[in-house]
Amino acid sequence: MKKKIQTFIKENWPYMTASFFIPFFVMVIIYLSLGIYPGSSRSVMASDSFSQFSNFHASFNNMLHGKQSIFYTWNASLGLNYLSLISYYLGGLFTPLVIFFKNQNIPDALYLITLLKIGSAGLAFWFFAKNTYKIPRWGHVMLSVPYALMSFATAHSEIIMWLDAFTYLPLVILGIHRLMDERKPTLLFVSYLLLFISNFYMGFMIGIFSFLYFIARMLTNWKSYKKRILPYGITSLLAGGASMILVLPAVLDLRANGETLSQVTQFKTEATAFWDIVMKNMIGVYDTTKYGSIPFIYVGLLPLIFCVFYFITKEIPRKNKLLFGSLFIILIASFYITPLNLFWHGMHAPNMFLFRYSFLFSFLVVLLAGYGFEKFKTDDLGVLAGSTIMLIAIFALAEGTKSTTSYDYIPISAFVITALFLLLYLAGIVFYQLKKIPMHYLIVLLLLLVSTEAFINTNSMLKGILEDWNYASRSLYSEPYPSIKQLVDKTKKENDSFYRLENLNPVSSNDSINYGYSGVSLFSSIRNRHSSAYLNDLGFRSRGTGLNIRYPNNTLLMDSLVGIKYNISESDPLKFGFFPIDKAGKFSLYENSNALPLGFLADNDIYKVKQPTNDNLTSQTALFNALSNQKQTYFKFYQPTIINKNNVKIEQNAGNVTYKEVQNNIAKDITWTVDVPAYTQAYLSLFPTDFGQLESSTATMSVNGTSQKSQINITGQYYNIGYYDKPTTVTFTVSFYGTTAVSFMEPKVVGLDTKAFERSIQAIQDKGADLTAKGRKAVGTVNAEKDQVLLTTIPYDKGWKAYVDGKKVPVEPFKKAFVSIPVTQGEHTIEFVYLPEGFMPGVVLFIVCIGGFVVYVRFTNKPKLALVKSNKRKRRKR
């Protein structure tokens, strides 16, 4: 076996090297032209890569260094199923490479991993082509380069978690070929398994496509291939079952916490039009990866030529054309028909980055192009040349008949370059057919043209990302890192029991999982929806299904409840009970003397606390009074007075107020004054009347020489204007920017009575249980004066198990959000242990299915072994 591998590499290393490194260096050169390289000031991070993937990869680095469990993280919001997050964002084989980087240098890790994944896609397709097509050796490379650099991959190159799929797709299809033609299921099993483990989301799409492909290929030779239905079914099911070690916990988690299924409200997909398929096959066409985009299907003009030739030449059976053409029909129909489009996305409409399955169209083009190239001969009577001329005519027709309002993002230069390359390919084909150049010269020429074309298109895709999203500056990520990390590490050294921390000037919404502290904010498709929903009811903004939750702009009560012991801030947070204790760079560390521990005792009727709808201050009051056994009034309302405004026109209507700008793109400034009583923490309440119209609108609160900027639709409504221990007339200014108008319920100033707050906090702290959280466990002791409930701020999840004095007790969800358990009178040792729901069944399936596959392979190989032994005996007799 080892000798075979060595021989294979020796014979094929030039082609393998080219198929990997041509796409690799195309990306390197174009990134370099954009100012992106290891250590560059501009990073490879764009769109979600900055806020999500960089931080998630940093957290994976923390996990590899033993700083957190693989099963649970306390550092993603209040706490999260980390195995599920891995399966969605971090399952790729290249992810562990982050161990060689410091978290401050994660942008360089993402850069390297992106390049490796693009190169690996080229190598994987070369391997597929090498074992599939009977064409010249450099022809395999000629097909692998455009596949690796197809528009979908490069236009979505910042979505690093999707790139693994492009490596496994050709291996899955090759595995199907080997199973059908050679009765060898191993490659299919391994490819499916690695695909599903790497990213089950893209794995779902490839799984559906590969099943359809198997059906189509089986029908090309039903008599022979019908015997492969059972082996394919067994192999696929065993691979899927083995992948459940990661997929099952993720699916169960998403079922409990994920997005709801999208409703079909229209038949035709938005933004798509008649000429989309033609227009998106031109060189360098990038519209957007935000809303309103059409599918990215370009994979190169030469593959397109040979794909068309596949359907025109008489050398291919008509039945094959109809069967594989039906796959194109299904994909194209899916681009235009909403129910089919939703099906490919698991019946959930994507949030930007639309038509996420369109790479399957590109793959099918290259796959059939290879078969077309096999039939290409010098004496094909100009059919291939004719198909090339036909493509030029179709592109010209589309360009000439498009309306002035359609495809305005496609410059005339895209058509010109496309036509030019088609003519160059046509010239090469004609010269070959006229026997002016031999095949090996033609292949080299075509490879050079293909690589140049891929370079031009990839350059347009990456520049499109730059204009659409912008590649973030490295300094935004790396510059604050040492100071923030220094302060975070200080808090870790000074605390044995659990606590939480939040940064008022965060780098991104997912800082906590990067720096290794527990906070509130999180932006992730993997989240605890129920805890976020309850926190939203208590004033932390987390609208919809909890995809986002944000810490800023809530009250001191909630700081205390969730155990925020520290704030990091560039300026004084102006909060009662917060005192500065350290400083690093431009950041200071403030400690909260009123933070509650992770758990606290409460009476059994705590479950009956009412939760008013759309009234978070009443919800906070009811919860705190129930926990403290008091009847305090914490909040009072005051009417502020506008004393100055700039670039603002004010319109009032039935309790709502709208602030409109007079001059465009200039901030709308309003200055208020209000009389604040002694011992009061004051807030300006700004509650939007329409969140959807404020996606890009910000509000900057300026008071007492400090400023704090917030995104209006994504943070809470209580903008802090400071604590005052004496009666004070406070003047403050809010600057609105980003939209032409902002509308709110009539703004009020909310005053928190800090004396009442202190009395309640003291009562709850007296019943606190200091728990130590590490890995997937939280342990501690509690002393109950009577039979009570231990309520924690651990997000409720079915994976939690609880033990009191070593005996298992039932875990009760509080408001479907937090973990709570019953405790009897006396002192007890408490232990909470987490294991993701579905993990143990997944482990069992992993072992059973891999073992089952080994047994299945040996069983199916027995007849072959018996035949080999029989032949040996016959030869000996002779």
Would you mind describing this structure in some detail?
- The structure is a single chain.
- This protein starts with a helix and ends with a helix.
- The mean pLDDT is 94.
- It has 878 residues and is an alpha+beta fold.
- Helix 3 (82-90) crosses helix 12, helix 15 (318-336) crosses helix 16 and helix 18 runs antiparallel to helix 19 (412-433).
- Among the domains are: 1-34 and 91-469, no CATH class; 635-754, Galactose-binding domain-like (Jelly Rolls, Sandwich), CATH 2.60.120.
- Helices cover 47% and strands 19% of the residues.
- It is built from 28 helices and 32 strands.
- It has a five-stranded antiparallel beta sheet with strand order 24-11-27-31-30, with helices on one face.
- This is Copper ABC transporter permease.
- Pfam families: YfhO.
- The chain crosses the membrane at residues 12-37, 82-102, 109-129, 135-153, 192-216, 228-252, 291-312, 324-347, 353-373, 380-398, 410-432, 439-456, 839-859.
- Keywords: Membrane, Transmembrane, Transmembrane helix.
- It comes from Enterococcus ureilyticus.
Brief summary of the model shown:
The protein has 28 helices and 32 strands. The protein has 878 residues and is an alpha+beta fold.
Task: List the keywords.
878 residues, alpha+beta, Jelly Rolls, 5-stranded antiparallel β-sheet, 28 helices, globular
Helix proportion of residues, in percent?
40-55%
Query: Widest sheet: strand order?
Result: 24-11-27-31-30
What is Rg?
Answer: 31 Å
Q: Kindly estimate the percentage of residues that lie in beta strands according to DSSP.
A: 15-25%
Please report the distance between the alpha carbons of the first and last residues: 30 Å
Mean of residue pLDDT values: 94
3D shape: globular
- Oligomerization: single chain
Sheet with the most strands? 5 strands, antiparallel
- pLDDT < 50 runs, ≥5 residues: none
What structural class results from the helix and strand content?
alpha+beta
Give the tally of β-strands: 32
Number of H/I helices: 28
Protein name: Copper ABC transporter permease
Keywords: Membrane, Transmembrane, Transmembrane helix
Organism: Enterococcus ureilyticus
InterPro entries: Uncharacterised_YfhO
